[in-house]
Specification:
Layout: H1 28-38, H2 53-59, H3 61-88, H4 91-97, H5 102-113, E1 125-126, E2 129-130, H6 143-162, H7 168-195, H8 204-212, H9 214-256, H10 258-263, H11 270-292
Antiparallel strand pairs: 1-2
Helix pairs in contact: 5-9, 6-8, 6-9, 7-8, 7-11, 9-11
Amino acid sequence: MPGPASKRRVPVSQPGMADPHQLFDDTSSAQSRGYGAQRAPGGLGYPTASASPQSAFLGDPVSNMAMAYGSSLAAQGKELVDKNIDRFIPVTKLKYYFAVDTMYVGKKLGLLFFPYLHQDWEVQYQQDTPVAPRFDVNAPDLYIPAMAFITYVLVAGLALGTQDRFSPDLLGLQASSALAWLTLEVLAILLSLYLVTVNTDLTTIDLVAFLGYKYVGMIGGVLMGLLFGKIGYYLVLGWCCVSIFVFMIRTLRLKILAEAAAEGIPVRGARNQLRMYLTMAVAAAQPLLMYWLTFHLVR
């Protein structure tokens, strides 16, 4: 799997060369030169013009100081806003979970449907920092869970419409119930990790990502139910339930049991057994919720 792209130094631009960071060509200088040539004093009958009020304003030192002070205030205000936003919404951290590309999405979907074919489940690190998801298929992301949740709501609306049961209130109830169950899952797992005293690098955003992958299988089950009836629904949903169970077991055991392995805790130790039970419980809850949130959409 390819590693992170190495940083390439951009040579310093020479006079007359285009800036590599510039998005558009700067035509202002050429236009100003042409305009100045046309308005040259005494040239071709044009009278000599005195400095314009705008030029006089820009040439005033007091005005320049005021403009510099205003720019400084604007920069300080932007920095203050960014800091306050990061206090409540970790924008920088969220950018990591959306650093995906088309190849990653394809590989991740294949991993969710066929986890039995995958061997290496370790997350890759570079200088104690996990690499971006687009470079590691094992890394959690929020792009697929977010898109899967939106698609699930749309597919649920389609299923309700084919059964003449569609209403905005019912669709809103479907979406809010799915979000409520996801929130309860996250809170229950965080509480369980605290009670079992597990020191893990598993963050709340990681939990949302891993728990959100079940929407992919739910979409497949409902679509097959719409096309082939209940038989197609149960076959595809059953496959997806087993797949998500295997996926969660192999993923979470590296997160929850990693500390026990590092500390050399015996496999049959009491604390290690609790961690294994917690991993199994989280994985087993995914198929149950997949069925609970979709069975009423297929008739």
